[in-house]
Amino acid sequence: MSLEEQFEAAAEAVKALTKRPSDEELLELYALFKQATVGDNNTSKPGMLDLKGKAKWEAWNKKKGISQEVAKQSYVDYVNQIITKYK
């Protein structure tokens, strides 16, 4: 199975979780997914009142410099940890 196929399978597996991961885990999943699919964060930081948007932006921005391939592998590994915890 190629890394791309593993990545897509992991993304589908997250949608099928029966329990909701913690906010920190969700932010990590979001940041790794965005880094894997888009690359480095090149968007402007949301305003102070957009707390959710700001948290997501900061989580993604911390992944800056990680290649998309490494981010995909990290995402797959992290999803596998989450699945064992929340299935």
Automatic annotation (TrEMBL):
Domain annotation ACB: ranges: 3-87
Record lineage: Eukaryota, Metazoa, Ecdysozoa, Arthropoda, Hexapoda
PANTHER family according to UniProt: ACYL-COA BINDING PROTEIN 3, ISOFORM A-RELATED, ACYL-COA-BINDING PROTEIN, ACBP
Domain of life: Eukaryota
GO biological process terms on file: fatty acid metabolic process; lipid storage
Organism: Cardiocondyla obscurior
UniProt key word Acetylation: no
One family name in Pfam for this protein: ACBP
GO MF term set: fatty-acyl-CoA binding
Keywords (A to Z) from UniProt: Lipid-binding
Protein known as: ACB domain-containing protein
InterPro entries: Acyl-CoA-binding_prot_CS (IPR022408), Acyl-CoA-binding_protein (IPR000582), Acyl-CoA-binding_sf (IPR035984), FERM/acyl-CoA-bd_prot_sf (IPR014352)
